[in-house]
Amino acid sequence: SPPLAGQELGRTLCRAPALVLTGCLKNATAGLLRFIASDGAGGCGPGDQRGGRRQLMSSPEAPPCRAPALLGSIGGLKKPAASASGEQVAPLLGSGDNSFESDPGELLRRAFEIYRSCIGDVESGSAGQFRAERAMDKDGCTVWMVDGGGDATPGTCSQAVIRSAAPVEAFVQALHGVQERLTWDGSSFVSYEVLCSSPAEQIDQPRGDIVYCRMQAPRGMADRVVVQERWLLPVPANDGGGVAVVMASPSEARTEELLARRDAVLGPTPGHSASLAIHAKTVLSAYLVRPLPSAEGPGVVVVAMSQTDLGGVPAWAQAVARRAGTGRFVQWVRRLDAHCAQLSAGGAGVGPPGPGLVAGGAAKGQVANKGTGTLHRLLRHAAFLAIALAGFWLARAAAAHVTVRIQ
């Protein structure tokens, strides 16, 4: 009846501010969780699928890997970098910069120390200063939460066993090549650039470069930028062979110098100046790409780990968000598998997925994700329409009630 409708409208209007505030907080929290869970920009780890700004800068490609075990078999180390279209490009700040502060061998040693702490036990393990707790084990993918103890930056270590005909070199190219990475994982970045590089003096030595990444933050928060010294080097045969990509941020003084040089080269770029973002710091990030043992058939094992402090976000909030975002690793691996299958086939872009993970095919997962996303959009539109119609009916009922009272 109109009186009851009027009372209901009054109660709704009284609750409206609280509902709006709750909705805003929920959206902000969800955005923050996505942002922190995707702290892997620039190779730190998997990103999410949200749309966003993306800026493709002059960036060299990873050298095509011709054999999994030795850098000496990775062709093109001494050749000029080329883009996906074949056009030669150069690092933003030039080549020949040997001012690296990190030791690639030490970074690789620490990466394997973290990895061994993760696989030391079914549920949890410890080795040296690191302690790991398994947070997810699904579809051939495992994610561990890693704690270094004390004031050490917590992080994650993720492993995927991928049954794929694509060789190790395809996965290395997809993960290390900037433009290749943007092809299949571009939604994780606002900008992803190679600032400078230093060619290896010998073809079997580690190759180093310095990359700049900008991560889009939720509305109301400043974007994060991270500068990383990045190394491509072989994995020892006693650790399974393959190729590793290891990264760490330089000192704050070196970071400031590089960012100032970048802004000087690019000039004023509204909304994208590095000075307008908060600096994140990578303690250690790594990819370990190794072939499966021959007895297990074709495939690769990809390990991704990240110890990155986003800055300005409490450590406990970062830890909670990383744990909440573990499920995104499965989708990230499926996109990687699909792209590598296309690379191996000699095509361009992301095509049909490869054979997939140990459990759960990538093709099925991708189709399901597409359908689920469409269904969620339809449900949201239907909910908004229902709310609008209910509000319109309540407003008419209240107006009729007021008219009757006046008469």
Automatic annotation (TrEMBL):
- InterPro entries given for it? START-like_dom_sf
KW DNA repair (keyword) present: no
Positions of the region Disordered?
44-63
Q: Does the keyword Transmembrane helix apply?
A: yes
Q: Which UniProt keywords apply?
A: Membrane, Transmembrane, Transmembrane helix
Q: What is this protein called?
A: START domain-containing protein
Transmembrane ranges?
Answer: 382-404
Q: Which residues form a coiled coil?
A: none
Q: Tell me the superkingdom of the source.
A: Eukaryota
Organism ancestry: Eukaryota, Sar, Alveolata, Dinophyceae, Peridiniales
